[in-house]
């Protein structure tokens, strides 16, 4: 505890922020799951209210990133880590092939509403897989190396993935319509 006063000026929030904040105190599983869900909700908030052409805008040249591409990428990451590597489900990869590994970001010809629906479905399936696991120590198999990977590590890596792309989303959104906030 400290005697110094808390600062009076905080980073501004989005006016329509409905995210559930992660707990300040809690168990490891509860905290990791809540932080990942908060990052998922943050990404969705950064995309809210934009028109399809704005979501597909590559607004921070020379980068080719767009919010549309990122939602496709994040849907693919959810499927890859939770369904394919951890749960060993036999499902096709999304927006990826060895011949065209960057199609999630590069090929924006699909329906953005459908891309968000796919992403939400993958997030929900990831939540189900996580909830069904008896322990964070349960492992899947990394397809690239054949080594085991724990659910704990997957959750941590997915939090990092969303944190990185939420930073990209901040820049894109500000360039698209001037909106800022955490």
Write up what this structure looks like.
The model has no long low-confidence stretch (mean pLDDT 92). With 182 residues, the protein is mainly alpha-helical. The protein is 53% helix and 3% strand. The chain has a two-stranded antiparallel sheet. It has helices at 28-47, 52-55, 67-86, 103-106, 112-132, 151-177; strands at residues 139-141, 148-150.
Task: Give the SSE layout.
Layout: H1 28-47, H2 52-55, H3 67-86, H4 103-106, H5 112-132, E1 139-141, E2 148-150, H6 151-177
Antiparallel strand pairs: 1-2
Helix pairs in contact: 1-6, 3-5, 3-6
Short description:
The chain has about 180 residues and is mostly helical.
Give a quick set of tags describing it.
182 residues, two-stranded antiparallel ribbon
Based on CA atoms alone, the radius of gyration comes out at: 18 Å
Number of H/I helices: 6
Helix/sheet category: mainly alpha
State the separation between the terminal residues, measured CA to CA.
Answer: 26 Å
Please state how the strands of the largest beta sheet are arranged side by side.
1-2
| Low-pLDDT windows of residues | none
Q: Which outline best applies? A: flat
């Amino acid at each position: 505890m400290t005697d110094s006063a808390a600062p009076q000026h905080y980073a501004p929030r989005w006016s329509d922020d409905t995210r559930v904040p992660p707990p300040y105190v809690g168990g490891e599983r509860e905290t990791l799951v809540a932080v990942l869900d908060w990052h998922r909700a943050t990404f969705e908030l950064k995309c809210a209210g934009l028109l399809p052409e704005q979501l597909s805008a590559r607004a921070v040249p020379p980068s080719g990133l767009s919010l549309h591409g990122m939602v496709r990428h994040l849907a693919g990451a959810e499927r890859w880590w939770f369904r394919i590597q951890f749960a060993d489900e036999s499902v096709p990869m999304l927006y990826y092939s060895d011949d065209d590994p960057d199609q999630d970001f590069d090929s924006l010809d699909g329906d953005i509403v459908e891309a968000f629906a796919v992403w939400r479905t993958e997030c929900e399936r990831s939540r189900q897989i996580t909830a069904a696991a008896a322990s964070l120590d349960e492992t899947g198999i990394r397809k690239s190396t054949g080594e085991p990977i724990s659910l704990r590590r997957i959750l941590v890596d997915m939090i990092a993935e969303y944190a990185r792309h939420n930073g990209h989303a901040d820049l894109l959104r500000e360039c698209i319509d001037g909106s800022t906030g955490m």
